[in-house]
Design brief:
Elements: H1 50-70, H2 78-99, H3 111-129, H4 131-141, H5 149-155, H6 157-160, H7 167-178, H8 182-185, E1 186-189, E2 195-196, E3 200-207, E4 212-218, H9 222-236, H10 245-250, H11 252-263, H12 269-285, E5 291-292, E6 296-301, E7 305-309, E8 314-315, H13 319-324, H14 329-347, E9 349-351, E10 359-361, E11 367-369, E12 375-377, H15 380-394, H16 398-408, H17 417-423, H18 437-453, H19 460-479, H20 485-508, H21 520-526, H22 537-556
Parallel strand pairs: 5-11
Antiparallel strand pairs: 1-3, 2-3, 3-4, 4-7, 6-7, 8-10, 9-12, 10-11
Amino acid sequence: MSNRPHDETPSDANGQTSEVSVTPHAPAADLAFGAFSDQPPWILDPAGSAWTEVAIDLRSAAQREVPTLTKRRVLPPLRRLVVVVYRLGRAIAPWYLRRRGVLWFSTFDTPEESRADLSRRLRMAIEKLGATYIKLAQIISSGEGLFPEELVGEFKKCRDQVPAETFADVLRTVERDLGARLSDVFATFDTTPLAAASIAQVHRATLRTGEDVVVKVQRPTVSDRVREDLKVMSWIAPLMIGRIPVAALANPPALVELFAETIVEELDFRMEAANMVDVATMLRELDQNGYVVPRPHPELVTKRVLVMERLEGFNFDDVAGMHNAGIDTEAVIRTGMIAFMEGALIRGVFHGDLHGGNLFVMADGRTALLDYGIVGRLSDVRRLAFLKLMLAATTNDLRGQVAALRDLGALPLDTVIDDVIIDLRLAEPIDPTTLSGEELVKEVQRVVKSLLAYGAKLPKELMLYVKNMVFLDGAIARLAPDLDLLAEVANITLVFTQRHGERLGKELGIDPTAVEFNFDSVKASLGVDVATNSLTYRELQKRRELIQKRMRDYVVS
């Protein structure tokens, strides 16, 4: 692989643009180090390329920029602040007046209708506000079970149904970044995008050398707009402290900083290409053969353009199509849970933005992972804290769980562990289905108040991990509703013990053969009695629906 600088285009001795010299269908030598497709359009060199070499420096520079973007200012960018307030106010005001009955000729018949109307209005306003707010909507869209289903349903449209940029803008960006005319690099290039999301949109294309590819093109003004929006958010965040209970729990200024840490790394596709190789390498090292990462092109990657291998498969929601093709969807889910947890706990690397638009299932049953703008990276200290958290959960060690959360940064280092256990009543798990709506709301308020008192927060890595777990939770609902969750926890525990027992024993300083697994804390986290021996997702979902209904009915009444 050439080490040509990332912003140059292949050229001959006379400076004329030439076709990239890539041999299609060469032996898949890169499968030795990465989880790629079996029929490579090109071969990646494990030694890396220009974008691999600069990615580490770019990532460090992006993180150094976060404190500057999120520092408290006397005044925010006023023009942008006015636009944000206007867009959101214009969306919320009609809904609020209608809900309060001020608009006598039009009121909501049901709470569901009210939530659906507000969700639609917010989604339309967010699309007009652009990339930063669309990215927030995408995060919320992954929170099935955490947010109202009407809001999640609307915000799912922000994954890949955002209004696209004009092809003239796309053409200008591609030619400027690649330093060549479109026709000099591509034999074909679809003018209509496959999908358009917050940061970029993707187009089908064919290289002059014949390979079928997907081209990811950044929106022209997104880099400047994101930075401007972060400055607005950092100005507003302190004003929200203590005003909104949920926002107070998250600590608004810290939440803005957390959001900034994730989104600034998405603004340079050279980091994303390097992330693709890192995740593919991690999957191969773990012998996780159920996942496929598209190969980024060794030459055609710049700050705003990413050319990658084109893969095909079933949409993750197309359960009927997968079943008709003979694909075992339970196996897809099982592989996903183990691969995700192994990546985080064993290698400290995991895809940080799982959602239905970022993966699909190939005809052979393997899952293709897409979009690597956000990748979780755990330091050894935090990876070990995650390991201790998982071990404590499967051995019903409450002190170990709280200590691990402290080491992850979710609680201050001087937190007294026994006090947390007493205040949160962790030793006295409650079956939420036995509580009335009023009791449920009061219990949530009590827990939130206790967490606030301890200065709880959500570290970036924990947020990404939890968000992915929420997605997997929803994926089980669609692909494997009859999966026995307790049996799967036991299976995952067994897999980890068999595959990594010796290593985990050394890292955690324990004898893995002497560990006695006790899933009482796992059952408690699911809200079921310790005497429960099996629990399908379908059964769990019925319990959740009952709990949510009681809480909604109490709040509405």
